[in-house]
Design brief:
With 301 residues, this protein is an alpha+beta fold. The chain is 28% helix and 33% strand. It is elongated, with a radius of gyration of 37 Å.
């Protein structure tokens, strides 16, 4: 059977004092085109006018809020003239959002934002109700020239600058895009099988070897010691940029692909030696057979 102790916390909340400027939390009870009603566990409900919900011009309360959602808001008036407590989520956000944004920056949390508008040298989005700037240089891993084309697009970003005093919030999609591209590249490298033969194009030559583009965004290194069976003093003696070559995958350690052209020479030389040995053996048999015929032809039967 329930007792008074079961209701103590609720009673304490209902008799607490709420003052203007306090930040309170409550569960959404109803959402209309004009306002959102909150249950504050208080003798009076909380009311947030639609214009006091968010700074994001595209925020739609009916689409984004559901009964039971918990909202934190600042007390604007303890009585709006109708017995309700008038609240502002915007004001609370100005206090609470910056702490959350700072935590997101420290933890490098990846979030998705929608580009709202294009401005000089970048674009604007909203995160936690705060207007955020994404420089054109931080939109993508690739060069971005036309920022207007990004309006309405969803971009995965991380927070790189949080400055509440200057009301400055800067995001970066480039950081995320580069990491995702690197993860995808490492996955493709992990799928390569050591010992298999690949074909590629020499894309650059270094004193210590050559980098071979084997396609799918992957390049492997052929060390100078793995270029040829013959001893060479310079990579240029054998390779040139743009040249098509075949190589054997030695390993894919630490996300790097090591190749060997010399290993293929071993494979190709062995069959050639076997063919030569077979040719010699065939030639010897042919000679022996011919000599025996010549010998028998001398006898008259």
């Amino acid at each position: 059977m329930e007792s008074m102790k079961d209701y103590e916390k609720e009673l304490e909340r209902s008799f607490r004092t709420i003052n203007e400027g306090d930040i309170v939390s409550g569960a959404v009870v109803a959402v209309t085109d004009e306002e959102v009603t909150l249950d504050l566990n208080y003798y009076a409900p909380g009311i947030i006018k639609i214009e006091n919900l968010s700074n994001d011009p595209d925020f739609h309360a009916k689409e984004e809020l559901q009964p039971g959602d918990i909202i934190e808001a600042t007390v604007v008036r303890t009585d709006d003239g109708h017995g309700n407590i008038e609240l502002s989520k915007k004001e609370a956000n100005e206090v609470l959002a910056w702490d959350k944004l700072r935590e997101m920056m420290e933890q490098q949390t990846v979030v998705t934002v929608r580009i709202k508008e294009s401005v000089p040298s970048g674009v604007v989005a909203f995160l936690e109700g705060i207007r955020a700037f994404i420089p054109a240089s931080q939109l993508s891993a690739d060069y971005v020239e036309d920022t207007d084309a990004w309006i309405g697009k969803d971009v995965r970003v991380v927070v790189i600058t949080v400055d509440p005093e200057k009301n400055k919030l800067v995001l970066s999609g480039k950081v995320v895009a580069r990491q995702e591209r690197e993860d995808e590249r490492n996955h493709r490298i992990a799928m390569l099988v050591p010992g298999s033969v690949v074909e590629g194009t020499v894309e650059s030559i270094m004193p210590y070897g050559a980098f071979i583009n084997i396609g799918n965004g992957i390049s492997g290194l052929v060390h100078i010691s793995q270029i040829s069976q013959k001893r060479i003093s310079s990579v240029h003696e054998v390779l040139k940029e743009g040249q098509k070559v075949k190589a054997k995958i030695l390993n894919t350690n630490d996300g790097k692909v090591s190749l060997s052209m010399k290993a293929l020479e071993d494979i190709m030389e062995k069959p050639q030696e076997e063919e030569e040995a077979e040719a010699i053996e065939y030639s010897s048999n042919e000679t022996a057979g011919t000599s025996l015929g010549d010998l028998l032809s001398r006898f008259k039967l």
